[in-house]
Amino acid sequence: MVQATRAVVYSRGQQLQQEIAERGQFFGWQALVLFLLSLALVLLFTRMIIGPVKGIERMINQLGAGKSLDDAALFTGPRELRSVGKRIIWLSERLAWLESQRHQFLRHLSHELKTPLASMREGTELLADRVAGPLTPEQQEIVEILDSSSRNLQS
């Protein structure tokens, strides 16, 4: 009877060891599949984030180089990054507007300065030609300074 009990216990021990080995192998495969799936998801999410970030970086580089952001309307990615992209486009448009305002101001300023400068040049030429009468050496020096300065401003 002891012998039979030992045989049953031994047999049952063998079965349990086999079940443990099989389940261990099953859990090993599960762990491997989960690891590979996790790795694939990490790579996918990384690509989903890195791609739009690189797109934003390209937009900033174009903006810094003074190029237009025409193709920026095709920008895709997570909502927050799309929002950043839209703000960069807005910034680009605002910078273009400010640049046009600067050019317009400079054109206007140049136009407004030409008339008084022309009058100044005309006056110094009249003084240099002694139309108003003879000049003292000090006055002649002042006329030469005015003439030189007005020529520099006109060019």
Automatic annotation (TrEMBL):
GO terms for molecular function: phosphorelay sensor kinase activity. Signal peptide: none annotated. It comes from the Bacteria. It catalyses: ATP + protein L-histidine = ADP + protein N-phospho-L-histidine. Keywords: Cell membrane, Kinase, Membrane, Phosphoprotein, Transferase, Transmembrane, Transmembrane helix, Two-component regulatory system. It is found in: Cell membrane. It holds the Pfam family HisKA. Residues 101-155 form the Signal transduction histidine kinase dimerisation/phosphoacceptor domain. Its EC number is 2.7.13.3. The chain crosses the membrane at residues 26-50. It is a multi-pass membrane protein. PANTHER family: SENSOR PROTEIN CREC. This is histidine kinase.
